[in-house]
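Reopening this ticket.

The earlier resolution said the output was attached, but the attachment link was broken on my side. Pasting everything inline this time so it's all in one place.
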Amino acid sequence: MKRIPLIAIIVSLLGSTGVPAQNQKDDLAIEQAIMNGYTGWVNKDVALATQDYADDTDWTNAFGDRVQSKEDLETLLTEIFSLDFVMAGKSENRFNDIDYLSPDIAVARSKTVRVGQKWGDNTAMDDRHINHLRVFHKKNDQWEIVSHMISQAWTKK
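Inline output:
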């Protein structure tokens, strides 16, 4: 798959008023891809969590871990899912906003709240408000995640 330069995405975001989904099927497919990732996380199911990612996806989590392929993402998630302190707690997906930049490019923003997660020393983390920004590309009538940036909204003091 050809990578979409970041500058092209930024220009599209700044200059775009957005385009409507081609049909409800697009919205449902993107929502399902987001839920597959969420459900895969909850069930520690690497295959489900990564099934909607492009082979050359670019993924960065809230702790700065970055991978640039689906294969490397599968390896990283296998490791993460094996860490009891990381997998402690419960997650709740709060919302998904989808904007279409073109008929085959969409940007989805979502938020997950994670309660009860722990640090490596087994102490409790504060509730985490985790923001996700995913770039989807429609290829062969299928939506794939080509980029996923995860960020942490820390409590302001």
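Reporter confirms the inline version is readable. Confidence is low (pLDDT under 50) at residues 7-11, 13-17. Strands lie at 53-60, 66-67, 90-102, 105-115, 128-139, 142-153.
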